[in-house]
Amino acid sequence: MTRRAVAVAVCATLGAWGAEPEWRLTVEEPDGRVVEVTSAAPRADVEVKLDAVETADGCTVTGRVVNKGTGRVTAFEGPIFKRLPVDKARSGFYVPDGFGRRVSSFAAADGPKRPVGWKPVGDGEYKYETANYPGRQLAMPWVALDDGKSGASVSVLDPVARTKRFTLHYRPAQNTAAIAPVHPIFLGPGQTWTLPTVSFARYAGDWHVAARKYRAWYDSVRKVGDFPAWTKQVNGWLLVILKQQNEEIFWPYGDFDKLADYADRLGLDMIGLFGWTVGGHDHLYPDYDPCPKMGGREALVKGIRLLQKRGKRVCIYANGQLQQVGATAFWEQYGKNIALVKKDGKLVIQNYHKYSDIPRYDFALGCLHAAPWHERMRFLAHQANELGADALLYDQLGIFSPFACYGKGHGHPTPAWSYEAERPAFISSIADEMKKINPNFVIMTEGLHDSIFDSVAFFHGCSFGTYHPACNSLVRARLGEKNPGGEWPEIIKYTFPEFASTVRVPTPIVDRTMLNYTLAFGFRHDVELRYGPDRVYVETGKVTSDYGTVKGPPSLKLLASAPQEKLAAYMKAISDFQHANTDLLLEGRFVDTDGFTFTGTGCLAKRFTGAKGSGVLVWNMGKKPATVAIAGLGEPTSITEPEAGAVASDAPLAPDTLRLYRFAR
């Protein structure tokens, strides 16, 4: 059978394209006009060639685009996989948005009532579009659509982490959908672009099949890093801003023993030192020098050693992309020439204005292609190791999707995408170098995407599904809806069980439900001390609403939800529970619902496997005691709860409580 014949046969079998894969692309003409070109109305000056090859469960598509014209091709959407059935009562569209999202509300034909995220595109069709990969809003380049019994996935199998996203086109009248990857590109006259392999697969079952398929491919071309054991044993951190943006000092280096005391009360294993520099947090980047007013370098080194003697791992901070405009010698010598540049010639600027009575500082983003930026980040990793820290956090490098950079002299063509394929190489080169110097020193970052899983050992949560309200909306959806949507953190954790990330609670304490959420999905805790009144809360337990000129104070509602003593006691019980079950809850492999069946009204059950067997962690999310039954794993060898310890097998599970059932297999 010829390749052409295979393509026709596959397309006909799928009922997707007819005789040729469908596609769309956009061309920016020399006069600035943007023109859409489709497979139904192609242009002679843009050659598109797509080849489909049949697989056991669907097909893979490769191809190329050749620009023979005078304009620039700026995006290619395709291949388009059509006529996928949608059951509005049961179907979900699974997107690796942050920890994971399940879209279960499909656009209605009456327009104004359509759910968030959908927009009409004409002819009775609605479109849902993801963000660009790689970035916190699309952490993996695959999506799936199923009704729990059968479905289909589309994955872009690209060993190079180039920019891409997905569209879901839905037709309410037919209850059918079309899925397509979109590839933003800069393809100039006379150039050829090669389409990375796109996989379409039908499956029996649900999204877990798609996740396993993608992970199998990932392991064939890329590897999750081999990191020190301590990165898997840490249950979370106390994030502390020592000195703020207005240069107000909250925690001088000599007060680190008090931070260790509070971390001990909560049972946390790591302390993150932010704002440890002369400028404080979000000020004078990319200069990071020990602050004489807080005690100087010698006191900082001594303080880090003290924390480590108290059993804490220590991570210090550096921003991986921000540089304050006009504020440093680095800016004048290098920064202004290597900053990301937009099409209009202006710099890509971000602002973090944390106090209303200080100036608003502008931060330009360093282009990761540029050698001076790489060298400054490399220097900061060496400095962190020399100060005695266990880790360096490059803030924000796991956050943003790629940027279109029109700058010159950065080491890339103009224009080009920055923060895509060069980002993993940028981070891994530093991580590999540091590993040779100190095998126990690791690189961390904020946000997540799988293109950097080879070099980043631990992530600071800053994505969909990580923030404190996430657990509450998840509970409401899964208890109150027949076809729930929203947060679906199983997606990232099932695909990459070894992935370690905190959640995000920018408040000096965590409530019970968020702690349970964190454990249920195998994540790590986050407690943050960011402002002056936070220290008062730590030392006295008193909550004040007077944060002065602070523009983003912590959740006062959370702080006032219960006495500090009660909140801290439950967190300590949770932490002790994790440490007592390290083999499962910290070092174990999250396998979600694989291998067992479960009943329990209002409950969520997740399985973890380890060297000594497995465990099913059950969380009663409801408001009433629940009777729990687990089948398929034999009889439990133990049944324990964080507060009660060992419990009887027939004991009801109290509301908002966790219980671990251990099994020999």
Could you please describe the fold and organization of this structure?
The structure is a single chain. The chain has an 8-stranded antiparallel β-sheet. It has a 7-stranded antiparallel β-sheet with strand order 2-1-5-13-12-9-8, with no helix packed on it. A 7-stranded parallel β-sheet has the order 25-24-21-17-16-15-27. The protein is globular. The chain contains 15 helices and 35 strands. The protein is 24% helix and 31% strand. It has 3 domains: 3-221, no CATH class; 230-466 and 501-580, Glycosidases (TIM Barrel); 583-663, Immunoglobulin-like (Sandwich). With 665 residues, the chain is α+β, with helices and mostly antiparallel strands.
- List how many beta strands DSSP finds: 35
- Termini separation: 47 Å
Helix content: 10-25%
Report the sheet-strand fraction.
25-35%
As laid out across the biggest beta sheet, the strand order is 3-4-14-11-10-6-7-26
> How many domains comprise the coordinates?
3
What's the CATH C level of the largest domain? Answer: Alpha Beta
Q: Examine the secondary-structure arrangement and name the CATH architecture of the largest domain.
A: Alpha-Beta Barrel
Number of helical runs? 15
Radius of gyration: 26 Å
Shape: globular
Largest sheet: 8 strands, antiparallel
Structural class designation: alpha+beta
CATH fold assignment of the largest domain: TIM Barrel
Q: Please tell me the overall pLDDT.
A: 95
Report the CATH superfamily of the largest domain: Glycosidases
Low-confidence stretches: 1-19
Q: What does the secondary structure layout of this molecule look like, with pairings?
A:
Layout: H1 3-14, E1 22-28, E2 34-38, E3 46-54, E4 58-67, E5 72-85, E6 92-95, E7 101-103, E8 118-122, E9 125-129, E10 142-146, E11 150-157, E12 165-171, E13 176-187, E14 192-204, H2 207-221, H3 230-233, E15 236-241, H4 256-266, E16 270-274, H5 296-309, E17 313-319, E18 322-324, H6 329-338, E19 349-351, E20 362-365, H7 371-387, E21 391-398, E22 403-405, E23 416-418, H8 422-437, E24 442-447, E25 456-460, H9 469-480, E26 486-487, H10 490-495, H11 512-520, E27 525-529, H12 532-540, H13 556-559, H14 564-580, H15 582-585, E28 589-592, E29 597-599, E30 603-610, E31 613-620, E32 629-631, E33 638-641, E34 645-646, E35 657-663
Parallel strand pairs: 15-16, 15-27, 16-17, 17-21, 21-24, 24-25
Antiparallel strand pairs: 1-2, 1-5, 3-4, 4-14, 5-13, 6-7, 6-10, 7-26, 8-9, 9-12, 10-11, 11-14, 12-13, 18-20, 19-20, 22-23, 28-30, 29-32, 30-31, 31-35, 33-34, 33-35
